[in-house]
Amino acid sequence: MKVLFIGGTGNISSACIQPALEKNIDMYLLTRGKSKIEVPAGVNFIHADIHNSDEVIKILKDQYFDVVVNFIVFKPQDVERDIKLFKGKTAQYIFISSASVYQKPPVFPYITESCPLKNPFWEYSQDKIACENILMKAYREQDFPVTIVRPSLTYNTVIPVAIGSWEDYTIIDRMKRGKKIIIHGDGSSLWTITHADDFAKGFVGLLGHQQAIGHAFHITSDEVLTWNQIYEDVAEAAGVKLNAVHIASDFICKIGDQTPGMEWMRGNLPGDKAVSAIFDNTKIKTFVPGFTATIPFKEGFKRTLEWFEADPARKRIVKENNDFMDKVIAAYEKM
User: Fold this and answer.
1) Interhelix angle for 297-309 vs 227-238, to 10°?
2) What Å distances lie between residue 230 and 39, 155, 185, 234, CA to CA?
3) Between the CA of residue 172 and those of 231, 237, 311, what are the distances in Å?
4) Most buried among 78, 120, 157, 195, using CB within 10 Å?
């Protein structure tokens, strides 16, 4: 089976490569070649910018792929481009959407793939919904062979907290200096975090799966934690005691509205992490028998922290993140 990954060197995508190779998949990676992520031997590289359609058409020429996966589609125009590029050139196109597309606030505690797609808080999620709508219309009207995958908060080479870090080391440095750490709300809302290696088990099982065409799947862990537990596990991995301050999500968002670069907090919190997320994984387990997430967050995050601390260049501190947390805490304590 010949598979093309577009943007295959990211937090989620890089974890899917080795399991695919172990299934004897002929793996191709279309990338600009700027990532420093190590890629396993056996991968065929295609150096191109997917946003340059003329370049991609010229490089791919008459190549046909059994599966095309685009990990870096965020806007409706991106999927419209891909439909033109890959119609008739693949038997399956997998779109990486997001579990943040599900209805916010939820009206039912358990999330299945049939839950409504509605997020009035976050443009990112609204764009993903628009992409899904375009692809499903192309499936119905043009037989475009789409499969939709919706990851939730999935980590490997990122720090999966709600406020303070993502691709940077800021929150860990802050914890080690004993500074206060913001937890939204009272920290009791329930959340699901998935290690990318677990996500890959379900994802690779969908590659070339003819019955998955026209379907959407979320692939998440079955472990459900409170945000208090999540931050406690992060602090434990860092070898420190958590110094937490609980602040209402709406208060954080109001400060975000007034802070350039932090306006996205309304999407991040009420549009995603401030509400409980408990996923029903029956569908992915039905299509990929044997899929089970086996890496608990307490263990998986220790791996992530070891990865960050193995290279000083990864221990990057983002001043804007620290400044925002300090600004929120100062405003809260003043109140």
Assistant:
1) 40
2) 30, 13, 14, 6
3) 11, 9, 15
4) 195
Distances (CA, A) of 335 to 131, 176, 252, 274, 332: 42, 27, 13, 22, 5
Can you give the residue ranges of every domain in the chain?
2-153+194-218, 158-193+223-276+295-334
Give 90's DSSP letter: B
Query: Is the per-residue pLDDT at 37 higher than 70?
Result: no
**pLDDT single digits (tens) 13-34:** 999 999 999 999 999 999 887 6
**Same CATH fold, 158-193+223-276+295-334 and 2-153+194-218?**
no
Distances, alpha carbon 254 to alpha carbons 164, 188, 260, in Å:
17, 21, 12
The confidence score (pLDDT) of residue 36 equals 61
Angle between helices 249-257 and 319-334 (to 10 degrees): 120
Confidence of residue 39 (pLDDT cuts 50, 70, 90): confident
Residues in Cβ contact with 57 at an 8 Å cutoff, skipping those fewer than 6 apart: 85
Residue whose token pair is 């700027």: 34
Q: Tell me the pTM.
A: 0.95
Count CB-CB contacts under 10 A for residue 319: 8
Class of domain 2-153+194-218: alpha beta
Cα gap 176→166, rounded to integer Å: 17
